[in-house]
Amino acid sequence: MDILELIQKRYTAKKYNSDKAIPQEKIDALKEILRLTPSSINIQPWKFTFVQDPEMKTKLASVSKHNTEKVNQAKLLIVFSVADDLDAFQKVVDNELPEARRDWYNQIRASTPEADLKVWLAKQVYIALGVGLTASVALGLDSSPMEGIEADKYAAILNMTAYKPLFAMAVGYASEDDFNRIEVMPKSRRSLENVIESI
Ligand SMILES: Cc1cc2nc3c(=O)[nH]c(=O)nc-3n(C[C@H](O)[C@H](O)[C@H](O)COP(=O)(O)O)c2cc1C
């Protein structure tokens, strides 16, 4: 299947088959794919938490607003978090990034109000969501992006302090009777003419 067909086929799964396991090599591929996500100045201000443990998934499901059922049913939940403690993240920058990027980040940090810096860091994490959604369908998996989570409670359950959860992605195999299946619910988007300008 070519990339256009894959994108036409991808949709947000609303109901999962909770019996069908995801092959470990596909989970490993998703880990590596997310790691390879591009970001501005290659800053990589993220943490991707892969949750397969059923007990932990149940806890997170209970603070996932209208997404509780999806989180419970899907075999994998990936929590996308952004660096929130900027002093802790400075250590990451100092220890893990090459000097040129470090100097660049330090300049940005010195000249940007903290709130704006945090918005900019969070934007980078959303790039990984696009990569993750596309990678999932390419791997033959269904997925659901979810901003509908109680981020503070996710942080407490995951014992996170330096990073802050932004959103999550359920991954697995959609149920046969998922009402949102692409065959049942055709893609709904604004028209090409209204969103693309060609000059
Ligand atoms: C950042 C983001 C957050 C979303 N949050 C939720 C969510 O919490 N629950 C949900 O069921 N769908 C969620 N969606 C799915 C969107 O509603 C969906 O992508 C959109 O309606 C287009 O449909 P499609 O993904 O099936 O093509 C989210 C999508 C994005 C990109």
User: What value does the average pLDDT take?
Assistant: 98
What can be said about the biggest beta sheet? 4 strands, antiparallel
What is the third-level CATH name, the topology? NADH Oxidase
| Apparent shape | globular
Bound molecules: flavin mononucleotide
What report would you give on this structure?
The protein is globular, with a radius of gyration of 18 Å. The mean pLDDT is 98. It has a single domain (3-185), classed as 3-Layer(aba) Sandwich (NADH Oxidase). A 4-stranded antiparallel sheet has the order 1-2-4-3, sandwiched between helices. It is 47% helix and 15% strand. The chain is built from 9 helices and 4 strands. The protein is α+β, with helices and mostly antiparallel strands and 199 residues long. This is NAD(P)H-dependent oxidoreductase. It comes from Flavobacterium aquariorum. Residues 7-173 form the Nitroreductase domain. Its cofactor is FMN. InterPro entries: NfsB-like (IPR033878), Nitroreductase (IPR029479), Nitroreductase-like (IPR000415).
Short description:
By secondary structure, the protein is of the alpha+beta class. The protein has a single domain (3-185), classed as NADH Oxidase. The chain has 9 helices and 4 strands; from the N terminus they run ααβααβαααβαβα.
